[in-house]
Amino acid sequence: xxxxxxHPGPLAFAHRGxxxxxxxxxxxxxxxxxxxxxxxxxxxVHATSDGVLVAFHDSRLxxxxxxxxxxxxxxxxxxxRARIGGSEPVPLLEDLLxxxxxxxxxxxxxxxxxxxxxxxxxxxxxxxxxVCVGGFSDSRLAAVRAAAGPRLAxxxxxxxxxxxxxxxxxxxLLRGRAAAPFAGVxxxxxxxxxxxxxxxxxxxxxxxxxxxxxxxxxxxxxxxIRALLDLGVDGIMADRIDVLRDVLGERGCWTDGSTGSSxxxxxx
Length: 268
Known about the structure:
Blueprint: E1 11-15, H1 27-36, E2 40-47, E3 53-55, H2 76-79, E4 83-84, E5 88-89, H3 93-99, E6 104-109, H4 115-125, E7 131-134, H5 138-148, E8 153-154, H6 158-170, E9 186-190, E10 192-193, E11 196-197, H7 201-209, E12 213-217, H8 222-231, E13 235-238, H9 241-250
Parallel strand pairs: 1-2, 1-13, 2-6, 6-7, 7-8, 9-12, 12-13
Antiparallel strand pairs: 2-3, 4-5, 10-11
């Protein structure tokens, strides 16, 4: 098992830092999640036009900040002036890694130009054991793996998830047949995709049989969280991180991992 996954009980991920009244992917959101006891934080990365890696979900600033424009077309000097929700600066990924040394980060690499800066940030901070990289592009994940090597944990890409799902549906027809190896250490998937169920007992059992964990996003309803835990999933990503914590607590499997400390963020 990769060190990133070494944690007692189900992994609880604060999706984009979680929603406790702070803007998504802001330092304030991550601070609140860590204060609540979260050890696993989920975020996204883009690179600015001059190669600075920022923790930001959208390709453009428009939806969540007081400025406009594509991140990839703007220099860091412009992006740094944007305020998420009108109040919070856009953080650098490297600053988040440094601000919360006791936390582990699940990072969605959103665009090809972010691949090289991401691997370099992980290398500079020596964060190999506390980062897992995922994404909705097999080619981007392949590029990350090629640049980082086997030391870095990654999740399955879309084609690999589809292959895993098909294998789980085939069931007894493939029992006893060796599966081609999967490049990642976990499958990070929605419960359903375009109305088709992805996560069921067969999917979870097949993943486990192949040595893969299953992490489900983004689930905020306590009934759905309980049902997924009953299926045996290994992790859940949530915006309502208070709800996820309470459900895990009622089952006796909430582990307070608030060992990370926050420091003042620097800027290049």
